[in-house]
Amino acid sequence: MRLPRATAARTRRAPSRALSAAILATLLTFAPHLAGAQGARAPFAVEYYYKIRWGFADEWMELYRKNHYPILLKQQELGRIVSMSAATPVNHAGESNRWDFRFTIVWKDAETAHDDFDASSIIRALYPDQERFRKEEQRRFELLVEHMDIPVRLDDLKGWKR
User: Fold this and answer.
1) Are residues 91 and 126 in the same domain?
2) Are residues 81 and 112 in the same domain?
3) What pLDDT score does 48 carry?
4) I need a labelling partner for 117 at 20 to 30 A (CA). Which of 13, 76, 110, 131 fits?
5) How many other C-beta atoms can be found within 10 angstroms of the C-beta atom of residue 45?
6) pLDDT for 6-65, tens place per residue?
7) Mind spelling out the 3-state secondary structure of the chain?
8) Do residue 75 and residue 16 come from a single domain?
9) How many independent structural domains does the chain possess?
10) Whole-prediction pTM
11) Which domain holds residue 7?
12) Which string of b and e fits 47-71 if b means at least 16 CB within 10 Å?
């Protein structure tokens, strides 16, 4: 079936509009963080949410602590990460809203959070048995149902009125 000429033209343009909208949304989300206060590099916080297959949270957490957290600690030693914190929910939520683990990282700045940092030398130094490391990391990702990275603005509330 052939579309009328006007409809066909709109259909061809739709992807470019969607792409433009996605680029605009990304710029609006990250521009304040990238620009900072008068060009200064401000700390940049990201919350990493993990939803783990039912019954496997303990195994996933063990692998995270063993294989991923030490890499983050090394990056903190290098000055790339300002601080880190973790949270787990006390009660459960419905499946669509469920998350099992939130790890918040405050990066030195937005550029550092999004750069193409090569952690391979850290990984080789921490995990001489690379085959075991790869298998354990593969298992950790097999246990994930969902993973989200959400940049957030942290507020210490010092400027709030009482």
Assistant:
1) yes
2) yes
3) 97
4) 131
5) 20
6) 444 444 444 445 444 444 444 444 555 444 443 468 999 999 999 999 999 999 999 999
7) CCCCHHHHHHHHHHHHHHHHHHHHHHHHHHHHHHHCHHHCCCCEEEEEEEEECCCCHHHHHHHHHHHHHHHHHHHHHCCCEEEEEEECCCCCCCHHHCCCEEEEEEECCHHHHHCCCCCHHHHHHHCCCHHHHHHHHHHHHHCEEEEEEEEECCCCCCCCCC
8) no
9) 2
10) 0.73
11) 1-35
12) bebbbbeeebbeebbebbeebeeee
Closest CA to 64 of 149, 160, 144, 146: 144
Q: In Å, how far are 73, 74, 101, 126, 129 from 120, measured between CA atoms?
A: 14, 12, 25, 10, 13
Phi, psi angles (nearest 5°) of residue 61: -65, -40
Q: Which residues pair with 149 in a beta bridge?
A: 48
Structure tokens at 126: 């921490």
Q: What is the CA radius of gyration of the chain?
A: 21
The letter for the amino acid at 95 is E
Instruction: Report the length, in residues, of the chain.
Output: 162
Q: How many of the other CB atoms lie within 10 Å of CB of 44?
A: 24
How many CB atoms neighbour CB 122 within 10 A?
18
For 97, phi and psi rounded to 5 degrees?
-105, 5
